Amino acid sequence: MRASAFVYPWDVNGDPAAPEFVAGLGVEQVTLAAAYHSTRVLTPRHPRHRVVTAEYAAVLYPPDPARWQGRDLRPYEAGDWAPGDAYGEAAAALAQAGLEVHTWVVLAHNSRLGAEHPRTSVVNAYGDRYPWAPCVAQPATRAYLADLAAEAAVRPGARGTELESAGWYGLAHLHAHDKTGGVGLGDAGQYLMSLCFCPHCREGYDTQGLDPDELAAAVRAALEPVWRGSAPSDGGWAGVEKLLGEAYANGTRAWREERARTLQETAVAAVRAAAPEGFRVLLHADPVSYHCGANAGVDPAHILSVADGVVVPCTGGAGLLTPFAEQGRDGAVLAANLTVVSGMGGRPDTLAADAARAEDLGATELRLYHAGLASDGDLARVRAALRAG
User: Fold this and answer.
1) How confident is the model at residue 232 (pLDDT cuts 50, 70, 90)?
2) How confident is the model at residue 180 (pLDDT cuts 50, 70, 90)?
3) Radius of gyration, CA atoms only, the chain
4) How far, in Å, CA of 301 to CA of 287, rounded?
5) What integer pLDDT is reported at residue 233 of this predicted model?
6) pLDDT in tens, 84-94
7) What is the 3-state secondary structure (H, E, C) of the chain?
8) Alpha-carbon gap, residue 272 to 249, rounded angstroms
9) What gap in Å lies between CA 284 and CA 311, rounded to an integer?
10) Alpha-carbon span 147 to 107, nearest angstrom
11) Taking the model in full, what pTM does it have?
12) Which of 71, 121, 154, 363 could cross-link with 358 by S-S, CB 3.0 to 4.6 Å?
């Protein structure tokens, strides 16, 4: 199967050996970050640094001043961790090594945006704001995300894009010194704690026949036994209905899924309008439509009618591919995303078997996370697996 490795610009820029090293893994493609969230990463092979700290979510190229002039919501330029056109520099070097370059664009995940524009954030039923999670129901935020998708995706020379976080973000979030694991929320509890009660979502619930004040009170009441540890909150959607009641559960889901679905349509359309013919648009996706996070919850039939395919998390098992494969859409890209960094829970030693299993379940391509983060030993196993395949 065709394979692509995820790469950051700072993995490549300043390291003349990096492009050929990545190409030598046996991948045909790289998925190169063009817009990315804050992070702290190790760079185990770079000759100039070992730790890179991206202080806030930023675009890794110079944004177009004309596109963003006079707008309140606009992308932030990177600091010294990715100066100038860091994406363009890395993309050119990787292409020179014979690799096809696709962009990697993170959308609705931006803590600096939430800090500087608090009204854009998801607000839970207790009134707590999630600055990392832009509310994707708000018109101004949706317009910003669509334009960001178009600009960051269609960089010079790119042959396609992968859009991450193209939907709701919620409570779950890797955070500095995180201490949110004291109570097991489960799938249902995560959903309830991710419901947004910003002014726009409150109006949206009203359109579903739900009084937003009563709904917020019902969410808080539903979570009380969870906080006490006296009631499990798992059980998928049935668990949400059990905790919140069917009417409230289904009304909130209808509002949120419509907002996510239309955002995905708008973002993909914006990319296509800016892209050359043959440009591929994929979404990082979860087939459980009410799920939040980097892999946006989607309806498989709908998203495969909108985008060219999906990138699906498959580390630890490839079962999430099945709902997409069952759609039987000819030509759809179903990329199995496998972590190959052993220190991050990846299994490079079983890559060949995991890839074969994913292919059996319908995968047409592989994504390998992440060439810049993995040790030489991990990448030697990747190289061997790809050669054997």
Assistant:
1) low
2) low
3) 21
4) 9
5) 60
6) 999 999 999 99
7) CEEEEEECHHHHCCCCCHHHHHHCCCCCEEEEEEEECCEEEECCCCCCCCEEEECCCEECCCCCHHHHCCCCCCCCECCCCCCCCHHHHHHHHHHHCCCEEEEEEECCCCHHHHHHCHHHEEECCCCCEEEEEECCCCHHHHHHHHHHHHHHHCCCCCCEEEEECCCCCCCCCCCCCCCCCCCCCHHHHHHHHHCCCCHHHHHHHHHCCCCHHHHHHHHHHHHHHHHHCCCCCCCHHHHHHHHHCHHHHHHHHHHHHHHHHHHHHHHHHHHHHHCCCCCEEEEEEECCCCCCCCCEECCHHHHHHHCCEEEEECCCCCHHHHHHHCCCCCCCEEEEEEECCHHHCCCHHHHHHHHHHHHHCCCCEEEEECCCCCCHHHHHHHHHHHHHC
8) 34
9) 5
10) 10
11) 0.96
12) 363
Angle (CA) 281-282-285 rounded to 5° is: 150
How crowded is residue 214: how many other Cβ atoms within 10 Å of its Cβ?
Answer: 11
Instruction: Calculate the alpha carbon distances from 349 to 31, 171, 218, 381, 385 in Å.
Output: 22, 33, 48, 6, 8
Residue 186 has what pLDDT?
A: 86
Query: Is residue 320 within 8 Å of residue 314, measured between CB atoms?
Result: yes
The one-letter code for the residue type at 270 is: A
Q: Which of 133, 16, 10, 147 is nearest to 78 (CA)?
A: 10
Per residue in 264-278, pLDDT tens? 999 999 999 999 999
Tokens of 185: 């929320």
Contact yes or no for 185/233 (Cβ under 8 A) = yes
Determine the straight-line distance between the first and last CA of the chain, rounded to whole angstroms: 8
Q: What percent of the chain has pLDDT over 70?
A: 96
Provide mean pLDDT across the span 353-360.
97
Share of the chain above pLDDT 90, in %: 92
- Determine the pLDDT at residue 172: 77
22 contacts 371 by C-beta, under 8 angstroms: yes
pLDDT over threshold 70, residue 27: yes
Amino acid occupying residue 279? F
Amino acid, single-letter form, for residue 38 = S
Handedness of CA 172, 174, 180, 181 (dihedral sign): positive
Q: At what angle do helices 212-228 and 246-274 cross, to 10 degrees?
A: 110
Which token pair is 215? 């709904």
Q: Evaluate whether 15 touches 90 at the Cβ level (below 8 Å).
A: no
